[in-house]
Amino acid sequence: MDTADRDPRRAWNAGAEAYIDFVDSGADYYRHLVHGPALLAACGDVGGLAVLDLGCGHGYFSRQLASAGASVTAIDVSDDLLATALARESKDPAGITYLRADATRLGDSFAVASFDLATACMSLQDTGDPAAALAEAARVLRPAGRLVFSVPHPCTTAGVRAWQRDGDGRKTALCLDRYFDTGPAVCEWNMARLKYAWATPYHRLTFEEWSDRIYDAGLVVRRIREPRPDATLLAECPDLEDCYRMPFFLIFDVAKAGDKG
Question: Is the pTM of this model over 0.90?
């Protein structure tokens, strides 16, 4: 990945068209069926809450929050993803305010204690500095506020990751190595389900490192969830078998220290 691609704004602008198609076509079935619904459920009753959606992309999760009754402000660094979000808001208003802003510099746009809830749907790892994003989220939350966010599960996104397959191509076991190789990395978006391939920068962290960064931001973990499809959903979408057997996603529900909800 060259220097330009290490800028999240440029990288996500480059991949915006393929990403939007991936989500909107239903090809991102993990998002639609597994971690997306689980994240919304983890947020609880958002009716009437002032919510900040971090790394909103083209507004997929923001619109779900608004549909559930939240007053949503949504931010992203990608001009092209936000352009689609704004076009959809104009055509079908949900009362969402979209802004181009950096999750690691929320002070440039928001005052202290501005929100009841902050969310991030598979986006904090894609910021330039997850620790700074967590600290900034804590700063803009009200005293009893919460941050609920999803990330790729650290235990199954190791530095080396490959499925063993049988003679018919069925997945038999997930082989993992280099779990402790963490830090800045590159996500190669090159699945067959994508309109085209591209790459984005991200940070890979261990479970302990996520815990440390949450603690250092002045936050405490209320609950952790590892979403997986149930047997009924698996029967309807057999492609979910891998995340039925192994945890692919991790949801943190955290609050300011001293308020355990």
Answer: yes
